[in-house]
Structures are given as structure tokens and as C-alpha cells.
Amino acid sequence: MRLRPPRNAVDERAVAWWRSQLLVTTAVPVVVLAVLGALIGPARFWLLLAAGAIAALGLGCAAFFPAWWFRVHRWEVTDEAVYVRTGALWQEWRIAPMSRIQTVDTVRGPLEQLFRLGTVTVTTASSKGALRIAGLDHELAAELGERLTALTQATPGDAT
User: Fold this and answer.
1) Whole-model pTM?
2) Shared domain check, 112 and 52
3) Which of 20, 85, 127, 144 is the most exposed, fewest CB within 10 Å of its CB?
4) Is residue 93 part of a domain?
């Protein structure tokens, strides 16, 4: 069997979802620092400077990284395995043979629900942990969860 890059991209709405996650993550420390800067006069300059620096860094990351992640995140499910490729600078390829899959979960957090997205988590006995296919259309995620469950039930276990 020859390995090839996974063929499927995540849903285009994942870009906005990742961007929202970065902006929310950035907003929390910025708001805290801005409130502290407003309340603590002697430290106002440094607190507001830190808030501004974090805001600028967060906005820059939100503008750049989600589009890049969209270009590099790929996934595929075949009758033999689940393939996931993630990472921009350090790419990680994860392959889970059907015979090694223990559980399949579909998750939709609050922001994912807002963007009508879902995440499929495939758990194996691997020490690296579960494979996650994030940023899928919520209906596709549900269908994929059902398909993987059916495929793993039909696959005999590995005796090794």
C-alpha cells in the first residue's frame, strides 16, 4: 500500500471559526489588562502597552494563520484507515488503521455550532492520542462518525 497525501480539505467556514477562536483568546487578556490599566494609575502605561501589544499580535495571528491552516489541513477516510495531515511548519501525518480504532466521537462546541461545524475524534490505543478532524460541516461530521463506526465494526481486530 502506497501512502499519499489525504485528499479532503476542511470546510471553508473553518477559517472564520479559527479566526474567531484566536480573537476570543486574544480579547480575554486584552480586556483584563485594559481594565487593570484603567483602575491602577501608576501602572497604567505599562498595562495599556501590554494590552495593545497583545491585541496587535492577536489581530495579526487572526489575519494570517487561519488561511494558512486551511491550506495545510487535510483528511481522508478509506476502508483501511483514517488519514489526517495537520501543521504548517511542522507537518504531522497521522494514520489510524480501522482495526486499531476504539471509539469515534463527534463534538460541536459553542463556536462550532455557530459556524455549523463539527469535529470528529478517532481514538486508538496510540500513545500519541486521538486523531481529530476539526472544521467539518456539521452534517458531514455526523455522517463521518456513523461511517467510521460502521467500518470499524465490520473490520476484524488486529491480533498483533
Assistant:
1) 0.86
2) no
3) 127
4) yes
- Sheet strand arrangement including 101-107: 101-107, 117-124, 131-137
Instruction: Please tell me whether residues 31 and 98 are part of one structural domain.
Output: no
DSSP-assigned letters across all residues of 98-141: GGGEEEEEEE--HHHHHTTEEEEEEEES-TT--EEEEEEEHHHH
| Block mean pLDDT (10 aa), the chain, length 160 | 80 97 97 96 96 98 95 92 87 89 93 96 87 95 94 69
- Partnered with residue 81 across adjacent β-strands are 97
Q: What span, in angstroms and rounded, lies between the C-alpha atoms of 84 and 101?
A: 14
Do 92 and 39 share a domain, yes or no? no
Task: Give the single-character DSSP code of 8.
Answer: E
How many Å apart are CA 97 and CA 25, to the nearest integer? 35
Number of domains forming the structure of the chain: 2
